[in-house]
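re: ur question from yesterday

yeah so i grabbed the chain u mentioned. its 706 aa long if i counted rite. heres the sequnce exactly as i have it in my notes:
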Amino acid sequence: MKETIHIALVGNPNSGKSSLFNVLTGLNQKVGNFPGVTVDKKVGSSQISPGMAATIIDLPGTYSLYPRREDEWVAYRVLMQQDKQVEPNMVVLVADASNLKRNLLFASQIIDLKIPVVIALSMMDLAKSKGIKIDVAELERELGVPIIPINPRKNKGIPQLKKAVEQTAQQLYKTPVRDFINNEALATGAVNGVKELLPELSDYKAIHYLINHESFALSDPLQQKIESIEQDFKFNHTKTQAEEILQRYQRIGTILKQSVSEPSPLQKSLFTEKLDDILLHRRWGYLILLFVLFTLFQSVFWLAEYPMNLIDWSFSQLSGWFAQILPDTWWSDLFINGILAGLSGILVFVPQIMILFYLITTLEDTGYMARISFLTDKVMRKVGLNGKSVMPMISGFACAVPAIMSARNIENKKERLLTILVTPLMSCSARLPVYTILIALVIPKTYYLGFLSLQGLVMMGLYLLGLAMALVVSYVAKWFIKIQEKSFFILELPTYRAPRWKNAAMTMINKAKIFVLEAGKVIMIISLILWALSNYGPKEKMKAVETQYAGLIEKNPADAAALTQQKNTELLQNSYAGILGRTIEPVIAPLGFDWKIGIALITSFAAREVFVGTMATLYSVEGGADADESTLTQKMKTAVRADGSKVYTLGTGLSLMVFYVFAMQCMSTLAIVKRETRSWKWPLIQLAYMTGLAYIMSLLVFHLFN
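ran it thru and got these structure tokens back, copy pasting raw so excuse formatting
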């Protein structure tokens, strides 16, 4: 019978841990969440030997066993055996050979926990380029655990690592009996007191029980006994931690002198340092950053356009085909205009999500992403954010959904929450059809200096307006969010490297799966609700419309298509969605909106671009939602109110544009915010403040320009 072991994969950030995980597990991966937190749980299966399989869990990167961030606490609880859902038999620790001193601190702590461990020594090629020579056999003797040099990018050392894992699992490698440092001496009486209560603990693990027992799942009597031991022996957390780290680095220094030779620090700087002189320059650095972000932004638009159009076309063809073969019943309409339309609304975002995360992962792999955060931290910090907030916000110009998902790399809870709350204010690509048709309606084709288009300047102004308001909202919101957590912008600038295309592809696929399976459920439910509201209304009114147009079509068969379109418009007007539009008309009238725009505001909550399709239906353009935009624009230009005045004046057009800049007109964004914050509280707050902001700003704009 094949044996299955459970392995925790750990290491410092940027140590090559994710690359090793991908090589060991391939496509046999699942991504979920640790219970109670939004930290990703990556689990995969691997064949270690013919008789042994392994379940590998990739724990979040951490520098030591003294956690500060949410993701570090996740790794810490697993290593301290406080997570009942993740109980590894052994640990594979990935250590960066080019920065061995810092990596060995974490390694020595895990060794002293007395957990079976294998060290995978990565970045050997980088260490060699720095002139660092490592005597692996000597290092292995000093630490007392197996050490295997690996290069996941080139698949080197993987068979040897699997062999070491198998031998460790079979207890051919024993955990060192002697501690890396004398942990008992750090707090002799207190350590022995805890070990009397829990004899199975190592000396070092007992110290962590003294420091963090309040965060462990222990019984109340046991908690009280440990607290009493702390008080009796006057245990000092800070002093003990400081002495421990100092002693570990002293021992690590001795080991490195015996097993590692390094070049003189006076040698010429590496390629990375030379490149940083340009990319982090106080002037050129920002210009290069703007160029990189502009290229990223444009690439998402350009590359996603074709698959998105293909998805739209495919669903359109599929809907048309089903419309022909299915009987004319309510369930056919539900399937075509409810389920298929909802599915289309989910899948149409997938190309943007996949392309955006592919490009972001590529930037991360090259090492430039850390430089972006470094450059923008000063500006972001003034409004309550930090440098890591810039990428989610910029990504929001393409789509808020993947942008909010990418905010996970912000460690500080308050800054992460602020980033999530303001990112939807970035004008995403779904707003583009709305901006385009409204600008064509109310902004003249005027050029300044012969090449600056007024329409183009208005478009750019809408994007900048969203960005500026996001910074203002963040500045205000930081005073109301009472999360007390110190913000440390500690950032390691990794060495520049070639992107790992396979790793980027895996990340892209995983993010798409998360969106489709998690946010997709909520989108489908709301799509079906919107379908029902748009297709049903008071029976008497709906029946009266049906009867009226049945007679008209019978009398004028040549005009059947146009009359059917008019009938659909009146049915929508008398549906529950239409009634809702007329009900909210008194509220939206001060913004310059009529009931038809009210219906569009409601239906476009499924996705902002639905506004154009709704307008096409309401104004009876031949072909409905697939009508040519110029025809729709002409119809909207000639639209008049009951008193004969034009609907789409400059004031109304600008008011509507500003409303769409600020309003939360996207249910998928709310769904993903709920998922990321694990609460309906924040998406509802977001919906309320964005709707209020949209209303107030639209009101001001309408009265300024009307």
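noticed a couple things. The CA atoms of residues 100 and 567 lie 74 Å apart. also Confidence is low (pLDDT under 50) at residues 620-630.
anyway ttyl
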